[in-house]
Design a protein that fits this description.
alpha+beta, 3 domains, 3 helices, coiled coil
Length: 307
Amino acid sequence: MKKKYFTLIVVPDATSKFKQLKIPYLLTRSLVVVAILLILGAIASAYYLTVTYQNMNKMITELPQIRKDTRNQKALIERYEQDITELRQMVSRLKLINAKLMLMAGVDNPSDINLGVGGVESESELASIIQGFNDQSETVILQKIDNLSKLKKDAVSQEELSQRLMEFFQDQNTLLAATPSIWPVKGWVTSGFGSRKSPFTSKRTMHSGIDIATKTGTSIKSPADGIVSFSDTKDAFGKVLVIDHGYGYTTFYGHCSKLLKKVGDKVKRGDVIANVGNTGASTGPHLHYEVRVNGVATNPMKFILDL
């Protein structure tokens, strides 16, 4: 088969001989294909560079906003960490308060009781939560913080309630400690509270306490916590000791042989404060015992629990 050529005639000038260049057809077609490919490559490169430039320009434009968003997210994470820390502190305070409340309520081992609290318990757990924020939107993070804030408010409310309950129990314990609830001395009640016939005048008179007969020198014990407000001789009652227990309660001890406490002394329930005697207007050794509530004589038997 005869080869095909393209003939290229070159004429340098009018006086020179022309020259013929024979170019094979296949080579010419190959050169055309190569030229087309180079043109397409140049176009693709130009397009790529253009798109890359646009993307870089967009990134440069958005960089301040990205930095701002990063700062905002960092601030949100720091706020979440702070809220978690405060919540853990509240939980610790609630545990302490509830343990005290349980002790006041008579629970022997409050440390064994599940107090029903929650929250992040370790630094690794907190770090895991914070790391998870990187894959979440600002809206989701804000929602979590809002939920945590609501939980904090609930914890604050529970803490305030627990504190009020503890104050109530403390006040009740103080009131119970101030209530004259035990016998000041063991013996025989020879005269009760109320109207009676006087052993000296035989007339009906008001007996503002009870008389407990026992042998001279028997220890008289304070029936409740309080402060001695009187310790001296008082008219027909002989040697007298009076204790102010607070909450309007006072107790009176008459006809004592010996007073063992002075004014201002603090006493606890069960402390020995005096000895039974027969001083003053008395027909025999006994204790005249009174309980007054806001200054009004009240039957002591209403308060005595160890009958």
